[in-house]
Amino acid sequence: MNRPLAQLFSTAALGLAFMLPASAAIVTTNTAVTGTGPLGQQWSATWTGSDAYGMGSDLTVGGDKLSYDFQHPGHAGMGVPGQTYVFSTTAQKNGNLSINVDLSSFAAWFQSYTTMSIWEGSTSNATELTGNTWGGVVSKTIDLDLTAGEAWGFMATGGNYDGTGILTGSFTVTAADVPEPASLALLGLGAAGMLARRRKKA
Q1: What is the C-alpha to C-alpha distance for residues 59 and 75, in angstroms, rounded to an integer?
Q2: Among residues 140, 46, 131, which one has the least CA distance to residue 88?
Q3: Closest CA to 112 of 72, 139, 140
């Protein structure tokens, strides 16, 4: 092979090496992020998925919000086959827990998908809450029947087959406005008083 042709092949191979990642499917599990989050409880957050560039994902637990942010430089034709984010906590007591959840996600990819779910006991027991919200907010009120110590939480999944991998989202969780027993007692006394007044007038 003559020298100019050899140099051409060498340059092409070098360019291809820079274009392609070292591995097309490094599966990564991050060290769990933990902290005090929604409802004043301890939460943990983990992610798994295909991350060919080894960049990782940002997870946040704090205040009323649980969020995830995966920024992948992408590679045409490979994309991000799948990312899974799991946020978990445990029930503080037996009984009903009513919560409000504001869901927001963004995944603008070719053939992209993203889902946001809530789970009880196991992530295999998950109920989908919404798909891609395109950065908007979808609000839900959810009633859970929990046993003290039972694991529960939220899960998000996403993926694509394009050259840009961006997946972001958040769960903002607050307790639903349910009257406390003392408030219910006061309402009951007020109703009884009004009923007694009506009877006197009659």
Answers
A1: 23
A2: 46
A3: 72
